[in-house]
Structures are given as structure tokens and as C-alpha cells.
Amino acid sequence: MLKIRRYAAVGCVALACIASGYQASAQTYIGDDAFDGTHKNEITGYLSAGSNIINGFFMGPAVEYKRHFTPRWSAMGATELQFNKQKYAVYGKGEYRLPLGRFNFYFSGKVMYNRYQRSATNEWTCNLSARWEGSHFAITVGETLINYSLLGSSYTEPLTFTFGAELNVMPRKHSWNIGLFFRNYDDFYYENWNINWGLAFKANLPLRLQLFGQFNIRPAGSMSQLASRYETSGKLGVKYVW
First and final CA of the chain: distance in angstroms? Predict the structure, then answer.
């Protein structure tokens, strides 16, 4: 009986140490909210999968890297490959953060290239956006210019108004969170007035890691978003900072 009590006590101490270590690592993670003064680099990898009426089931990986040069200036590069869509994407993005009171304001510029191999279509996208970020919410507005070329001809769509909003259950820097979002864009596409909406979650892990995921519904698609019409998809990935 004495040995059992000793083992139980040791187990309780071990669990307490693990829990305290988890809380410490969870609280040090800042990620894409703001530079924390220590971790200047972020790398993110995720797998997305879903289905639409044009391609049926599809899936593919994406990788993103972000560098904080100062507490306010940062830059990001990312690439994605969708197998069944036969789609390849890459983008570069620069961002400036302006803290005002309890809020952060982000001003960003982004250039993106999409290659739709199946339809032999090239798409170039330029976006300028402003983001108002609070503890439980974020609102994004901007303008997007989309040009695509197909069969030797080129077409530029009129300026597309970029908009999005998110609402979270917990404060933004909490160790876990879940929330709703709606927007007309995602990491690798920009739409017109077709709203893209869904559910997102995150959970901080030890060793400066964060698990995150999304469930996403896009009822239709603009002409520039080939192979994306009536789409339901999800993401699951991990982010690491150092």
C-alpha cells in the first residue's frame, strides 16, 4: 500500500510538471498576432482536403514561412499544391502592424501566382488590405486586382472588394480558441461577392507549437476561381515558432 501511495504521489507530481510546462509554452506562443520579442520566425504546414462539383475530391499540402524583422514589420512567403485540381500556387506578402491601445491594425500587400494546369490557366493576384484586430474579433477590408490568361488571351477583372470578419470564443492570446469566420478570400484565392464561411480552432502545444484547423464552405465561385465552385473543404496543420 505504501508503494502504491508513493507511485501515486510521483505520478501526481509528474502530471503537475507536464501541465505547468504546457501552460508556460502555451503562454509564450504569439504566432501571427504580434512579434513577442523573442521568436522572429514562424513556419506553418497544413493539409487541406475537400470536394467540389467540378473536380470531386481533392487534397494537397501547403507551407508558409513568416519572418518578423521588427516588432512591427514582417514578411511572408507560401506555396500550395492541390493534386486533383492540378493547381500550384505561390505568394509573397509584406505587413506592417500598428498597435493602438488594446487593438492592432495590420496593413499588408500581397502578390500571388496560381497555375491551373488542367485548364492551362495562369492567374496573377495583387491585394492591399487593412485588418482591425481585437481580443475576440478581427475585421479585414481591402482591394484585389486579378488577372488571368487562357489560350493566348488575357483578362483583368474589375477591382474586387476584399472583406472578412472573425469572432472568437476566447481572447486571442488564450492557449486554445474556437470561432466563426466569413470572408471572400483564403490563403491562396480571392473571390468576388461570393462569401466563404466556416469554423476555425487552434490549440497551443508544448515546444512552441500550435495545432490549428478549419472547416470551410464556399457555395459558388467567380470566373477567376476555376475548379473551386460549390466547394466544401477543411484544413489541419501545425505552426512552429523560434
Answer: 46
pLDDT tens digits, 84-99:
888 999 999 999 999 9
DSSP class of 158: P
| DSSP 8-state symbol, 37 | S
Task: Please name the residue that has the C-alpha cell 497555375.
Answer: 115
∠ CA 159-165-166, rounded to 5°:
150
pLDDT in tens, 100-123: 988 999 999 999 999 998 888 999
Give the count of beta carbons closer than 10 Å to the beta carbon of residue 121: 17
Buried b (16+ CB within 10 A) or exposed e, 44-63: bebebbbebebbeebbbebe
Measure the CA–CA gap between 196 and 221, rounded to whole angstroms: 10
Q: Which domains does the chain have, with CATH numbers?
A: 2-241 (2.40.160.40)
Question: Which residue type, as a one-letter code, is found at position 66?
Answer: K
**Measured between alpha carbons, how far is 79 from 168 in angstroms, rounded to an integer?**
27
CB 89 within 8 A of CB 117: no
**Cα–Cα distance, 242 to 238 (Å, whole number):** 14
